[in-house]
Amino acid sequence: MPRHHQKKSSVPGGGSQRQLRVGEQVRHAMADILAQGNVHDADLEGHIITVPEVRMSPDLKLATVYVMPLGGRDTDIVIAALERNKKFLRGEVARRVNLKFAPDIRFRVDERFDEAERIEKLLRTPAVQKDLEQDSKQDLEQDPETDREEER
């Protein structure tokens, strides 16, 4: 079958296997650069920045770097500082990751932590706790149909 007629297999997490692999390499490089303090910017010096994910475009020419300052504070200041130092960071990533083209970099705040906290708060609300208790009581009560199936 000609190559252009084949279906592309989608990998969980978005992107091809190659995109995921290169994204992980760029993530490691970016995390090392930020951890070593190679970026000399007054706004970044007081922050510890985590890089939980990097998503690559299909042509590997654009890297979206998701970052989160420790404690989740001053995110706007950190993103602005990273944007100011984008050219330096791109050069450092190009030196550390062997690619034909150095990917253009854009920075985004990783909001998964906020979303997880919001869901956790929802699960702790009295209405949800009441529903969970009712579900567990129903699970404990045995269904007569299920008992007959087990006897066979």
From TrEMBL:
InterPro entries: KH_dom-like_a/b, RbfA, RbfA_dom_sf, Ribosome-bd_factorA_CS
One GO molecular-function entry: ribosomal small subunit binding
A Pfam entry, by short name: RBFA
Keyword Endoplasmic reticulum: no
Tagged with keyword Cytoplasm: yes
Superkingdom classification of source: Bacteria
GO term, biological process aspect, one: maturation of SSU-rRNA
Residues that span the membrane, as ranges: none
Biased composition (Acidic residues): 141-152
Compositional bias annotation for Basic and acidic residues: 130-140
Subcellular location: Cytoplasm
Chain intervals for the UniProt region annotation (Disordered): 1-21, 124-152
Family annotation (HAMAP family): RbfA
Physiological role: One of several proteins that assist in the late maturation steps of the functional core of the 30S ribosomal subunit. Associates with free 30S ribosomal subunits (but not with 30S subunits that are part of 70S ribosomes or polysomes). Required for efficient processing of 16S rRNA. May interact with the 5'-terminal helix region of 16S rRNA.
NCBIfam families referenced in this protein's UniProt entry, alphabetically: PRK00521.2-5, rbfA
The protein's name: Ribosome-binding factor A
Annotated source species: Bradyrhizobium nitroreducens
Gene name of the encoded protein: rbfA
